[in-house]
Amino acid sequence: MIEAQDISVSIGRRQIISGVNFDVRPGELAAIVGPNGSGKTTFLKALSGELPYAGRVTMNGRNLASLKAWDAASQRAVLPQATALSFPFTVREIVGLGLTGGRSGAAEGEQDSLPDRALARVDLQGFAGRFYQELSGGEQQRVQLARVLCQVWMPVLDGQARYLFLDEPVSSLDIKHQLIIMNIAREFARRGGGVVAILHDLNLTAMFADSIHVMHRGRLVAAGAPGDVLNDELIATVFECDLKVGVLPHAGMPFVLPQSAAV
Amino acid sequence: MSFAAIAGMSGARRSEVREGDRSARARLAVFLLAVGLAATVLFSLASGASDASAFQVVCDWLFPSFAARDALSARDAVIIQDIRLPRVIMGVLIGAALAVSGAVLQGLFRNPLADPGLVGVSAGSSLGAVAVIVLGATFLAPLTAVLGSFALPLAAFAGGLATTLVLYRISTRQGRTSVATMLLAGIALGAMALAFTGMLIFIADERQLRDLTFWSLGSLAGATWQKIGAVAPIIVLALAANPFLARGLNALALGEATASHLGVPVQRLKYVAIVAVAAAVGASVAVSGGIGFVGIVVPHSLRLAIGPDNRYLLPASALLGASMLLLADAASRTMVAPAELPIGIVTAAVGAPFFLWVLLRKRGVLEL
Fold first, then answer.
1. Which residues contact A123 (CB under 8 A, 6 or more apart)?
2. What is the pTM of this model?
3. How close, in Å, is residue A253 to chain B by CA atoms?
């Protein structure tokens, strides 16, 4: 389990997030939502050890600050919002970089076939030989997800849960692939791993997340099950527009609908 | 057998060769380049202003009793063992050092145009060397008195390392190196070193100017066993670090943050890479002056042929860089024999047009 207590991050003199408490358990898909600039990505960067923070983060009971890069890499994989690439790598070579740390968890003999299997899971069969830079934005995003999947192929390693940190994993995907990717995250959690995903689509969030964490102006303003967090008042306040929360009759699942074009 | 079945079979065979996996091709290339380097070494030993034959000398080494009968081969043996062989070894060391340094810097800066010349390493080394040439008899007299003929190479090496360390201090804050700051600071430091070098050249007398010109164009002519003893350990150590850098540099192509997420100790990787490059380039510049284009042409053309995977790119660069420098040196000492053309002129004259040709041909694939 990952536990973050009282996390604050400042960049220069500006405080970006303050006093955030957060946890994610094995088997849980935790979504972080909030308007642009509310500190979601900053928080995820603190959680992945990329930004210095005040407060305390433990991953499977160990202090994040004391973990070496390889040690952290064997426990969690990170999909950033955007990835720049400087040399003409093929898709297979990019996905294979997920095995840099060498602890995918797959059996010895399966290691070589992981890139192919990961590509198949993100619906990119036959793309292995293409140059990454020639792909569309959505295809590139799925290649990066395949790379991340290779890194933590088995959601549980040595009896410890592993984690996926996904920063807007579906932001440039069509609806079919949004569902495919969210199902991969769901499946990862079902098999015992933990997922932290920053999402913008509240309906997709309601459909897939076990818990929703709402950030607003650098603070965590609500956290809980989708049915508890998604209510008219909170959503309207945080996103500053007129949104109505309804419940799908047959599934009992909340959904969010804008009420007017005006802001 | 139906057409569909045959098509299916060839499809199955194709899937055995994993699409997008260039490692088999890269391994073959490394092997061929190694064979090529061996051939180039023999060719370099055999060719020169004198008609001394390497074949004959090798025969002499193998069958000493047979050699004793031939008076001429004694002279040839001296030419080959004490003039050509150290020169060839020096060429191999420096060619490999320059090409690999280019490849490592390009991986580190995630920019195919990065070059030891770009981040001021070469400029710093040059400043050290020029200072010794111009001030050796006056301000730096105590230094040259103590170090003798080692003053010049040591000063060049120190200049390169000092530039790199200052650069690292400037561009690293809170344990993180900003590549953009590092590139810009490198350009600024290089310009400063050039300015000081310019001042020294301004006050230099005529004899010093002549020394400077020949040193700055680069030459392997001064190669001796003594000099090899001084620079070989440095270059070999710097090259030995590369296998440990390769995987990290591959991950670094996705950015520093992602490399770190993949488990690469990014700060340590950068530090080792910087010191290795400074040492290799400093040692090379010290011995042979400015030899351009090896560090940029070799890795760049190899990347087009075998891909950017540093596990193969680094050894391939070392082999091709060594071969290329030997060929350039062979050209420089035979074209106007018995005089010699500075090797820097040869590498620039051949390297620059080649580089342009590569750029024009593969313009679509390259993203500079």
1. A142, A177, A180
2. 0.85
3. 35
